[in-house]
Amino acid sequence: xxxxxxxxxxxxxxxxxxxxxxxxxxxxxxxxxxxxxxxxxxxxxxxxxxxxxxxxxxxxxxxxxxxxxxxxxxxxxxxxxxxxxxxxxxxxxxxxxxxxxxxxxxxxxxxxxxxxxxxxxxxxxxxxxxxxxxxxxxxxxxxxxxxxxxxxxxxxxxxxxxxxxxxxxxxxxxxxxxxxxxxxxxxxxxxxxxxxxxxxxxxxxxxxxxxxxxxxxxxxxxxxxxxxxxxxxxxxxxxxxxxxxxxxxxxxxxxxxxxxxxxxxxxxxxxxxxxxxxxxxxxxxxxxxxxxxxxxxxxxxxxxxxxxxxxxxxxxxxxxxxxxxxxxxxxxxxxxxxxxxxxxxxxxxxxxxxxxxxxxxxxxxxxxxxxxxxxxxxxxxxxxxxxxxxxxxxxxxxxxxxxxxxxxxxxxxxxxxxxxxxxxxxxxxxxxxxxxxxxxx
Length: 441
What we know:
The protein is an all-alpha fold. It has one domain: Na+/H+ antiporter like domain (Na+/H+ antiporter like fold, Up-down Bundle). Helix content is 69%, strand content 2%. It contains 16 helices and 4 strands. The protein has helices at 19-50, 55-63, 79-104, 111-136, 155-165, 171-195, 202-220, 226-243, 248-257, 275-300, 306-314, 317-345, 355-364, 370-380, 387-423, 434-440; strands at 12-13, 65-66, 77-78, 348-349. Helix 3 packs antiparallel against helix 10 (275-300). It is globular and about 60 Å long. The chain crosses the membrane at residues 33-50, 81-99, 111-135, 147-165, 177-196, 202-219, 226-242, 248-265, 286-312, 318-337, 358-380, 392-411.
């Protein structure tokens, strides 16, 4: 019988990827777990300090101005602004690297595999945004301007939750969570550039092209000299900052310029790790260990005012909209989009998984923090009357999503622990679990 006449099995969603990609994802998640712990520590310290008798000193530290206005560069910024505009550019540089690598050299270079996390990320943006708008439209006075606050997933916190519950989730789900978060971040930075830019200085934006182009030329020629690349990156950041577009966009643009080179083992032309992988290896510890925790320290400090103050804050439509969008909208958007995609493409869930696993990951996607707080600042202003309510909404919604996800995924943990014990066998001692060799064959 000709091959074309053979019955085709339906495509499986969340099918097991390659061992190389699984190993890479596992290494990234281990690093993000440490970053998540530091992020949690910074948040707790900020909350305790902001609600202590010394809260004024916390506010004064965040308002401390550092820098210069020489040459009209407007770089006399507060420490809070440096953290949000400067340090987060490092975080978004990692986002740019990771996104490009996923779709150029990762398992998700296959359009069929890439469609799922992209569609889920879009659904996970539309539904929470709609819920937020529905709950705040009657408020007026620009309340709906914060519609994008609950649309991004904080991968560091999400992975920290996975580490705490010691889940043995299949690697395909972990890859899905990581890629979903990366695409979320890309969508978020696009939203920031398009919807939260009040004015654009065309001259400054054009000037940014020069250092960006020089940076791209250097990395394309495999130049790794930090003494050359860092000044070019800083000049690109300054120009984007001057243009009126949020400066973190520069980080993503710089990440996109770095070439992704396959290793010789993967069939590529160059031996050793690619340049994107090299930069990611060098920069991720700085992002996860310094940039994001410092931003969280300055952004998360909010005076709750006890139980009464918390109740009052959560009664505000903006805070309530954020909580509902994170806890309900984000999981519904991710899960429903996945089910609709499965129905539309007649794809079936991988035999090793259950839909409750996907729902647990969708709940985990409701943990929004870093980008949510950033968008909250952009939507209403750092010192606006709504700033504290945004922070309380983000923190409450993220904690609630984390608790619900922990309950669901913990119920599945025992089953997958037994499965992982079987699949981790390496009878031929070649460093690759036998299940991946069978899958490859």
